[in-house]
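step=encode ok
step=design start
structure_in=
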């Protein structure tokens, strides 16, 4: 699966688990770190953890594992690094504080067709 397919797959997983304020940003032309950021919020630290765990679980079923993870202890900002795609799952106050969307304002937002009516 290429980086765009991975990013959209992750966005769909997060959407199905009721992630809030879901965004996919194409940062490929701005950094050598990754191609896409997937950014989402959970309404509680429990949901933040649940969202991150669901992404890991669903992708692991497809044989895709993160290169590394960060933040499971704090549950305010969990980062899943899949190389070409980096997933940021935030508690709302942490998301507001770090303001990645402003920091990466030159990134191209990616429209993802979500299956919100499927459930």
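sequence_out=
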């Amino acid at each position: 699966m290429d980086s765009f397919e991975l990013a959209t797959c992750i966005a769909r997983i997060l959407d199905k688990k009721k992630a809030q304020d879901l965004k996919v940003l194409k940062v490929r032309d701005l950094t050598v770190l990754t191609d896409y950021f997937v950014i989402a919020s959970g309404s509680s630290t429990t949901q933040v953890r649940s969202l991150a765990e669901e992404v890991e679980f669903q992708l692991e079923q497809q044989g895709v594992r993160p290169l590394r993870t960060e933040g499971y202890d704090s549950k305010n900002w969990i980062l899943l690094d899949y190389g070409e795609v980096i997933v940021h799952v935030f508690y709302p106050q942490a998301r507001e504080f770090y303001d990645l969307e402003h920091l990466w304002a030159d990134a191209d937002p990616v429209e993802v067709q979500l299956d919100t009516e499927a459930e």
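step=design ok
step=annotate ok -> The mean pLDDT is 93.
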